[in-house]
Amino acid sequence: MDVLTGMAFGTSADAVAGDTAKMRASVGADNLLYTATYGPYRGSSPDTVTDQVQAVREADSDGAALFSYVQLRNDQAAAVGEGVFRTGAVVPHADPEAAVRAGIAYTSGQLGGACAPAATAKRMGKDLAAADRWTRLGRPERAHASLDAAAARLRAASAEGGTEPRFRARVLRDLSMYQRWLGVSAP
Question: Is residue 68 reached through a cis peptide bond, with omega within 30 degrees of 0 on the bond before it?
């Protein structure tokens, strides 16, 4: 199976996140899961549609979809187009290498600032650069090891109280997701 797309019928971001977490537990950590939200069909506000897509991402889904395109209103489309869907996506089931590399680039760009100690961010940046290189060279086992090293550095800094908790949780989730994508082969 290339990808599973589950429907989340909740009316709030919390409900959609809960549905996604249950789906993730059911399909396992190694399978691709995209979550489709029901906001456009239900006529939800643009903020709710956007909040639901963000909640899906935070609940460990590999992608988000909107049901139903025909019911997507202009104000909803504008909200997600200016927000959570403002950049084009590389879908992991179609091009896992490009998706991993885009994810690594995004995470690398998030390392600056006050979310993690500078020394940790610098070492993680080197780990992520190595993971990117190994991915490009078609060596997923080496990329996995480099992503593991980045995660270990972040956990060590966190144990010392040196990272912002939401940043740590998001980056650890994303690193795990990139590893899942590395195990996917294009159809």
Answer: yes
